[in-house]
Amino acid sequence: MGLLAVFCTNAINILAGVNGLEVGHALVIGTSLMLHNLLELWGPLRETHLFSLYLLLPFLGVSAALLYHNWYPSAVFVGDTYCYFAGMTFAVIGILGHFSKTMLLFFLPQIANFLYSVPQLFHLVPCPRHRLPKYDPDTDRLHMSTTSFRLSSLPWPGRLYLHVCRALGLVQLTTAEGAHGLSTCNNLTIINLVIKFCGPLHEKTVVLALLGFQVACSGLAFVVRYPLASLFYDV
Question: Residue 81: exposed, middle, or buried by beta-carbon count in 10 A (0-12, 13-18, 19+)?
């Protein structure tokens, strides 16, 4: 339960910082959970799913109003406060509603972002204070943010990770000539990964792409939870 609470709060917080992204993700997750609760109201855990709805409905109302003001161009900045509030709300709902495994199914983008970010989060690769994309005012586009380091100074798991990801096309790693040259790598978030694959994008386009990914993952989560439940839940 402690690990779930820590993960939910921080997983939203490290996939954030672009207008409308964290609130939009929370709305998609919250709406998916609401649908799950409604589908389970006639099951044996009716009371726990009712309790979940009692917490979710006010949260969704507040988040929808916040997204209206946080959407690009944002008039308000949500900061860490909303990320932790949203994450803890989901953690409480998953724990007290007795569906923590299903809860994590709706966090697939956040899990992917966490796994992709692990080398920087655990300092196997240098991690700057902010890993947000860079904004170019001349083109009104977001570009990948990068970090520089001496590749030879990294611990071997960090070097291995970067080489494997470069081979798979998941990082843009450039190394200067010479034994003491600096290497440059994009910061390891799926926000930067989208820009790597698609090139410089408008901020709203980045957010819409990531929210579309969140919606697709929620659809996959429902497929796993219901048609394929016997493969994942009856073990």
Answer: exposed
Exposed, middle or buried: residue 51 (CB in 10 Å: 0-12, 13-18, 19+)?
A: middle
Domain boundaries, the chain: 2-118+203-232, 122-198
CA atoms of 222 and 228, how far apart (whole Å)? 9
- The pTM for the full model equals 0.93
C-beta atoms surrounding 130 within 10 Å? 8
DSSP string for residues in 69-121: HHSSSPSS--HHHHHHHHHHHHHHHHHHTT-HHHHHHTTHHHHHHHHHHHHHH
Which run of H or of E encompasses 39? helix 21-39
Residue 27 pLDDT:
97
Say whether pLDDT at 180 is over 70: no
Nearest CA to 175 out of 196, 134, 146, 136 is that of: 146
